[in-house]
Amino acid sequence: MFRYSLPVLVIVIALFAGCGPLETQENTVEQSAEQSQGAGPVKESTGVVRRPTIQSHNARFYHESQRSRVSIRYRNAGLSPAYNVRTDLAVFLDGNSVPIEKDTFTVPTLAPNKGLELRGTLSDAFFENVINGKTTLLMEFTVRYQDEQGQGFEALSTWQFSRSTLELFLIEERAN
Question: Which fold has domain 54-175?
Answer without folding.
Answer: Immunoglobulin-like (2.60.40)
